[in-house]
Amino acid sequence: MRLSQSEGIDGVLLRSSKSLPGAREALRLLQRQGIPYILLTNGGGKLEKSRVRQLSKQLALPLEENIFIQSHTPYADFEAKQKQGCTLVLGGHGDSCRKVAESYGFEKVIIPSDIYHEYPEIWPFSAPFKKYHASVAKPLPLGMFVPSKASPEPREGMHLRINSMFVYNDPRDMGLETQLVLDLLLSHKGFLGTLSELNGKSDLPNHGYQQDSQPPLYFANPDLFWASQYHLSRLGSGGFQASLRGLWNEVTGKQGIELIAINGGKPYRSAYEYAEQKVVHRLHTMYDDDLKGVAIQDNLKRVYMVGDNPASDITGANSFQSPEGRKWLSILVRSGVWRGEKPKNELEKPGRIVDGVYDAVRSVLHEEGWPLDTNPEPRAVAD
């Protein structure tokens, strides 16, 4: 076994919720040839088992949960101390992302709806979403700090303090979620309703911004666009991040003040390191019996990334330097967000361009010398 395959989902296997031509056939071909593959998507917002069940139905093909990686799936492997405290999870429909974070082991998860339901004055323009927020809201663990003579300063254990922020998926109420993130980035130690006295101090790093134990901010998906059923690409989670960064520049008002955040998903290295680990695990589950006494990792030489987005899929594969020396090769499909634009830089240049995922799989098998006409039974895979 010298090759493996990593594939995107939106724009490669699906367009919105509809299966793309050749998607099912491509995966069946990989299964029948016994080639390990994973599905690596910058999408998210649902439990992995729910997404796999849905995708299996859409493709009319049995799929296993352990091949499926969403942009926020690596958060499940965070250390226990990173899952402690109060976590604000943003994006997604209803409370779906809360359920995902809880399934990952995060201790105390709240969503914007919880805050708005108890403190609607925090963003008055969410009034049209009032019923929506109320339908999924849960009581906050503590009340939000409101300065008064009796309580001029926030107190640990008495007032709501956010210890971390995660943008799992596209925000549904962007105004509210933008305001909450800005409030917390400017806060004193993550206490909602406060403003750090360090903001704007030129003698401190970053002019004092995000230097007062504010909660770290994680973005799971940097994609600016995604392929929907509409004929033009639509703004994705990366659009929320871009607008937030623009507002941050306006709010801070100074050149060189960074919005400090941790990005995940494609094209970032962390996503590809995680994906490669899963590919190796997949190889173990498929070929342990056949490769006894042989280091499996030494048998995997090349990983092919099939994607529709030059800025994420192709850039990530081209820039990734495998710690194990494996070669990642990129294939761009015409079935997604790419519309024939010239690459903006060398990293966006794919190794090849094909019409769809089935063409990609066949071209790889042909190049690697795998027979296309044989029809072996799919190899059983252990969980």
Please explain how this structure is put together.
This protein is an alpha/beta fold and 383 residues long. It has two domains: 3-70 and 267-368, HAD superfamily/HAD-like (Rossmann fold); 74-263, Rossmann fold. 31% of the residues lie in helices and 14% in strands. The chain contains eleven helices and 15 strands. The strands form four sheets. It has a six-stranded parallel sheet, with helices on both faces. Strands 7-6-8-9-12 form a five-stranded parallel sheet, sandwiched between helices. Helix 1 (23-33) packs parallel to helix 11 (357-368) and helix 4 (112-118) crosses helix 5. Mean pLDDT is 92; it is low at 376-383. Pfam families: Hydrolase_6, Hydrolase_like.
Note the main attributes of this structure.
383 residues, alpha/beta, Rossmann fold, 2 domains, 11 helices, 15 strands, 31% helix, disordered C terminus, HAD_sf
